[in-house]
């Protein structure tokens, strides 16, 4: 048992160091890019313009990606560019002009997989142009199931009718006749005529009656005294 344990430790010490020297040697993933090309030389004859396409090969010369050809484009954008990227692999990036005869190179550069994104890569053979790798994020997300619960609350519409009644009040003016009360003053007598009135219009019969009463009283007093 001890011999097996010692052999296992010895094996790890020998081969484990080589595994840790290149930890990403076998790291690979499919990556998606947008590749911009700038200042490409015009390799077409006459007044024609380049018909570029992008070609990527690994260090063994195997083609890992090739884009469609873009007709008559001087500043091409290759979108999308996707391939299985090994971080430690060195890739040959080349832009070529699609011709009827042999295709012309518009420039190439060798870039490690871990350094594809991170700046401009200057092209050579011929010189002058450059390419730039940018990450391409998926524009379509995986389908998701969304459950939407809609709760409908009945809307009660209350119509309020307000009736305004204007009452017209007719005020009839009331005429009040003041009552005049005269205390201690009799109404003036009516007019007199004939023998009953004196020169000032007073009644003489009243004075005559009073005089007869006085005469009768005087006579009655004399009779009593005589007796």
UniProtKB/TrEMBL annotation:
Presence of the UniProt keyword Membrane in the record: no
Region (Disordered): 138-192
SUPFAM superfamilies assigned: C2 domain (Calcium/lipid-binding domain, CaLB) (SSF49562)
Signal peptide range in chain numbering: 1-19
Location of the C2 domain: 30-116
Regions annotated as coiled coil: none
Keyword line: Signal
CDD domains: C2
Segments of skewed composition (Low complexity): 138-182
Gene3D superfamilies: C2 domain
Pfam families hit by this protein: C2
Domain of life: Eukaryota
Protein name: C2 domain-containing protein
């Amino acid at each position: 048992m001890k011999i097996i344990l010692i052999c296992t430790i010895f094996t790890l010490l020998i081969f484990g160091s080589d595994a840790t020297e290149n930890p990403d040697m076998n790291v690979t993933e499919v990556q998606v890019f947008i590749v911009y090309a700038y200042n490409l030389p015009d390799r077409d004859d006459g007044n024609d313009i380049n018909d570029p396409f992008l070609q990527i090969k690994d260090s063994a010369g195997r083609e890992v990606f090739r884009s469609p050809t873009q007709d008559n484009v001087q500043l091409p954008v290759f979108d999308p560019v996707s391939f299985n990227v090994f971080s430690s692999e060195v890739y040959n990036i080349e832009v070529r002009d699609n011709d009827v005869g042999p295709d012309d190179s518009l420039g190439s550069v060798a870039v490690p997989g871990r350094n594809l994104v991170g700046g401009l890569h200057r092209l050579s053979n011929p010189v002058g142009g450059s390419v730039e790798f940018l990450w391409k994020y998926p524009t379509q997300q995986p389908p998701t199931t969304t459950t939407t619960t809609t709760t409908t609350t009945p809307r009660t519409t209350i119509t309020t009718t307000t009736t305004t009644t204007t009452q017209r009040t007719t005020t009839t003016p009331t005429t009040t006749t003041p009552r005049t009360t005269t205390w201690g003053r009799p109404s003036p007598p009516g007019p007199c005529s004939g023998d009953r009135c004196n020169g000032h219009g007073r009644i003489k019969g009243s004075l005559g009656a009073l005089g007869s009463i006085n005469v009768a009283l005087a006579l009655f007093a004399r009779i009593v005294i005589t007796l």
